[in-house]
Every structure is written in structure tokens, then in C-alpha cells.
Amino acid sequence: MSGAENYLPRDRTISALAAAARCCRGCPLYQAATQTVFGEGPSTAALMLVGEQPDDRADRTGHPFAGPAGALLHRALDDAGIDLDRIYRTNAVKHFTFTRHIGGKRRIRQWPSRTEVVSCRPWLLAEIEALRPQVIVCLGATAAQSLYGTAFRITTHRGEVLRLPRDIASTARCTTRVVATVHPSAVLRDRDEVRRRNAYDAFVADLRGARNLIPTRAGSGSRV
Length: 224
Known about the structure:
CATH topology: Uracil-DNA Glycosylase, subunit E
Oligomer: single chain
Shape: globular
Number of domains: 1
CATH architecture: 3-Layer(aba) Sandwich
Order of helices and strands: HEHHEEEHEHHEHEHH
Largest sheet: 5 strands, mixed
Strand order of the largest sheet: 2-1-5-7-6
Helix content: 25-40%
CATH class: Alpha Beta
């Protein structure tokens, strides 16, 4: 075995997984990161968000989606009619990977390598198995490719309603549907105000489409 598989606990509840992940040494990323940033949210969540990796703020606080992209995500979830407290949030990679700005202390995020994504993948699969969510939203290419492989393209499959790969669905014993969209940081990167507003509206539409895949509970209104 390699990667995180060596560190998975026998008890596959979310709380046990989170505790075990704090000791993960499955890839070199733990050496520079402040801490493991595991998923958060109720174990009964019907909707699971999978981002790419923690950012600088998440690494320092230990909470996923804690930085500027997370703030935009929280606003978009609200606009899409999704309650943050009722969903599970995690990342494909659980440690922050970065380089330092030349001549300063600023930490600049780097994209995780395919080896690092694969090494961390057992944690994500264990989270899916523990939660068995009705819908997963993959935020960005790294998140989607952690489930579907490197051939997956957001530009081709954005907004489509997909099924989990058969091997994952069989292991997790679930019929989860998956929607892939951009990472909220991609919305922030566009400096043109009109394009950024249009990108935000499209992002909210993708989240709303994922929400609409979940049957509304009687008496719960239209929010997930």
C-alpha cells in the first residue's frame, strides 16, 4: 500500500477519519503545511462539496474554504439556496502546497502534483463511503480528476449530471450523482468586472442545479 491507505482507521466514521488524517504522512506535503485540513459538515449531509486543496488561510485555521475563494463560495451557496451548515465541505488534497514569494514571507499556492492527488485520494473515497451523499459537487479540475482521472475536462463536462465511477460507487455502496464546475478562485481571478459577474452568475447556476437534484424535505422549504 502507498499514500494515505496506510493511515486509514478501521472505524470509517467522519470523526475517526478526521482524527487519523491529522497523522497522515502519505506524501511529503505534510512537512511544510501547518496542519491537515480535513472535511467539515454534518455526517448526514445530502450534498458534498469537493474543492482542490486548502489555501493559505485554510492551512492556518484548519478549516476548508477559509480564504477569499471560500468567502465567495459561501456567498454563492447562499444565492443558490444552499445552507452552509447542512452540507459537507472537503478538498481532494488535505495539505496546503506552496512556494514562498522571493524576498518575503508570503506563501503562494502551487497546484498539487498528480502523485500527491493520488496519494491523498483514499481520504476522499473514505469520506464518500462514510457520508454516502446524494450529490457531490466537484469544484475545479483537481477535484473532478481525483474521481474521474486526468482525461476529465471541466470545459467539456461542466454542469452535466454524472454518476460516480462504478468502482467508487460499488465500494461506497451509493448511487451518488456528481456535478463538476469551476473552483471559486477561478471566478476571483478575472479582473474584468462584467466577466467576473457573469462567471459568478454561472457558478451560482451550477450550484443551484446541484441543489435541485436533491428532493426537498417536507416542511423544509426550498433550501438544502
